[in-house]
Amino acid sequence: MSKPPETPQAGEVEEATPTGRITRRSFLVRVGAAGAAAGTTPFSPLAMAAPAVARENDASPDASAANTGLMRVRLDVNGQTRELDIDPRTSLLDCLREHLHLTGTKKGCDHGQCGACTVHVDGRRVNSCLSLAATHEGEAITTIEGIGRPGALHPMQAAFVEHDGFQCGYCTSGQIMSAVALLKEPSGHSDDDVKEAMSGNICRCGAYSNIVAAIQQVRRNG
């Protein structure tokens, strides 16, 4: 009788794909290893809130990650490569805000319903609260900090200012990120088409008409 193939045990490292990307199987193995480590470690609120460990400051990064249940990820954020040791369950939103301190991306509902956390992944708009950071190795992540800056605003940012496309401002970064992505998406030319395309982004202040006006101005100007 032939011996059945062995199932990788928690903590074992699966062979990398040709592109170096994390596979679904290897990711699940790492999550299992993290869960096992967490189950044998006394609970500490301070430990749960601890920031990611920067690789360059770790004398023994491989041993550190294994001992703490963390996993190493390399993310391309706003054109910069960042290496972090994070809990494999960390959302892209929490990674950006808590570990990389890019707080322009806002946490609203944390359930993918309001759009305040919208970022771009390889040019596509994504609700970062619903996406695990570890699944985005090798992809280009862009946040609101990466599309413009004071004195060199993106045309969409400038149009939002010109048309008062915000009130409290909490949803604004997500609105702008969706609007910038919309410029490259197939969509009709009417205001109703824009409203439909932007329906995933909620403005609780109700500045929708101004937001549509800003988007339409940028679309007309090409």
TrEMBL record:
GO terms for cellular component: periplasmic space. Residues 71-147 form the 2Fe-2S ferredoxin-type domain. InterPro entries: 2Fe-2S-bd, 2Fe-2S-bd_dom_sf, 2Fe-2S_ferredoxin-like_sf, 2Fe-2S_ferredoxin-type, 2Fe2S_fd_BS, Aldehyde_Oxdr_Iron-Sulfur, Beta-grasp_dom_sf, TAT_signal. Keywords: 2Fe-2S, Iron, Iron-sulfur, Metal-binding, Oxidoreductase. GO terms for molecular function: 2 iron, 2 sulfur cluster binding; carboxylate reductase activity; metal ion binding. PROSITE patterns: 2FE2S_FER_1 (PS00197), 2FE2S_FER_2 (PS51085), TAT (PS51318). Pfam families: Fer2, Fer2_2. Its EC number is 1.2.99.6. It comes from the Bacteria. Residues 1-23 are annotated as: Disordered. Its cofactor is [2Fe-2S] cluster. PANTHER family: ALDEHYDE OXIDOREDUCTASE IRON-SULFUR-BINDING SUBUNIT PAOA, OXIDOREDUCTASE, IRON-SULPHUR BINDING SUBUNIT-RELATED-RELATED. NCBIfam families: TAT_signal_seq (TIGR01409). This is Aldehyde oxidoreductase iron-sulfur-binding subunit PaoA.
